[in-house]
């Protein structure tokens, strides 16, 4: 038995949307909270593609976690990686120690899934972290630079092809933004190549892109993408990826840069909770989002597998994660007040996907929109949910400026990729070149 | 003999201040210009320390080179590394080909110098590139995170010591900004440690810091630094650096993070020009900044060694580099117009060094200032020279916001350092931890 003046300690693993909102909802209660994450920042993932495509800087969509909670004395933020659980003794195992808890909220999220082809990760980065985004940005910008140099120095005119694998919201956003960059942003920046001749190809294995939307909106999205210059291929399964090609059965596409937006799987931490998982690695939870036999352990966000009314799974979207995080927090508070639990109920606010400049689709409780109106809805919702006032003003300004001028300011090629794989076929040394500065410095 | 309608081709190596201003000054003339750089962006180096100390984002001080010249049809930008010269045949050798020139402007700049101790580079990064700045930011923020975690999980209270080696303008800026972060910015963000107990130590081998300034301003700078909480040690030579210590002869300082601001040497490209170099590797040039026997080859910026009137060397500062770049451009244009050459004359506009919030020193043609007035002068000059309107507005906004709120928004720990050296003594796995996301993605 805990003593009467024991202040309950709640450990939250992961500061994505689910974990962050759980912590926020608990911050004003008489509890102690420890929020653990492997990164020092919360990443506003819905806008990550804007960093990958050079419209926003990392600092505009990533925010230091401990700064978010600086005024909440009962919230303690810990930079550490959870490695496992001792559920019997109410302890989380960390790489650097262990943490006892009264309640545990596991919100470890998801990562890319390459469907049994781990080697594709090298050639086709996905988009989950700030580092992913800057790596994609680097490859994309470097493809233009290399083509320009070849044209200038060797009179070789090698076409630039961007291939995006996966026709979900992230793939559509990336494809639309890449086309916009090639058609408008970079159009007048090069002398020996014409960026407007760049091909952007979006590949979807299923019969239509954006399958979570009504069919008519998928059709509208294809039309909007084509207007932006994107080639959409559906019903094509990727069977191979190397440094210069994407294979679709016996079809072979040349690819300067390949981006992966085709699948996610839940954090491997989920399998350590002892409950069953679905085929994407998500943990089967009770109607109150807890582990069977462990009412003190909540699993929320992308890591949780639960059905909504009607039998469809709750989708892996930010609004669902936020609702689950808030639900776990309020259920803990009801417990502490001696009230009974209610099951989690997912409120479907609608579905939004942006395609490009003034292009989007929206399905808000049966009300379907596409084009400019959908785009403004998307803009409004995303700016509204950005964490922190400073970022909101700045991001609005960036967007306004980019919209008016067609320019993207954050076009930096940075980083020191140590990959030995040629970024663009035949250009083995490109990546090394970017390291020269660092190397010569290290060499003395 | 060139034909009468031959348009002269000017190759510029390096898009730092000297190369950039040479290109800008030539952009409206009847010449063709090829600007070659290993990076795709110009870095506004005077504000790089603000990225290193999390006040600004990389995108705010680095600007895509080809975007700067997007409207100058006669300027072609090439991402490539110069590897040598064929002066006889008027060709620059690149890693990826070669470029013929009629005039050559070599503005390859400088890099860190560790005075024969190349292994120190791993423990004590310097500040020349955007990657350097984000690496310093990462180490600095990680030091606080590690201390917090140790205090929380292991009840260990390990002091945080930042050691900055080198009392020139960069060392002083870094020390001042680090102290400000510890004393103000992070003060309320941690629960288990008090960032205000952080020590910031500035080490200078010479008898006084900022030796390029009059002695009375050096004294004022020390006083302003001490007011910010920085400990200043002069007359101390660093004899050893490892992952946890800095050695000063028989004195051994514990150091969580060591930063190197003690010396630069010219780009190794300088030695390939065949002319003599001084002990910092800078090329001895003629009064018109050209190589002896090669009036068509200019060496400008940090790579050039030349004396000003009075016998003092022209300093390695942005204004000197800008003046040299403009001079090379105008001399080329005089040549083409059949006019005779005039020697380069350095116009000393004065010397500015910022120390921290409202703290700076300035020596403008004998008029000495320190404190708030000097700081406003510094602010005005630096915002004025920022390339590109968008950045200027944004940086002003960032500064205003940081000034009013004492906050720094760009506090991201990013990057995947593969260093096997412990960042902070005894924490060998820290850096690896940050890679987990990437690793698990690549593995699965």
Number of helices of chain A: 13
Assign a percent range to the helix content of chain A.
25-40%
Mean pLDDT of chain A equals: 87
Largest interface: A-B, 83 and 83 residues
Describe the global form of chain A: elongated
Quaternary structure: homodimer
What Rg of chain A is obtained from the alpha carbons, in whole angstroms?
23 Å
The profile of the biggest β sheet of chain A is: 6 strands, mixed
Give the spatial strand order of the biggest sheet of chain A.
Answer: 5-2-1-9-21-20
Number of strands of chain A: 25
Structural key phrases:
alpha/beta; disordered C terminus; six-stranded mixed sheet; elongated; 13 helices; homodimer; four-stranded parallel sheet; 444 residues
Task: Describe this structure as you would to a colleague.
The structure is a homodimer of 444-residue chains. Chain A is 32% helix and 23% strand. Chain A has 444 residues and is α/β, with parallel strands linked by helices. In chain A, helix 1 runs parallel beside helix 9. Chain A is elongated. The N and C termini of chain A lie far apart (63 Å). At the A-B interface, helix 3, strand 4, strand 5, strand 8 and helix 6 of A face helix 3, strand 4, strand 5, strand 8 and helix 6 of B.
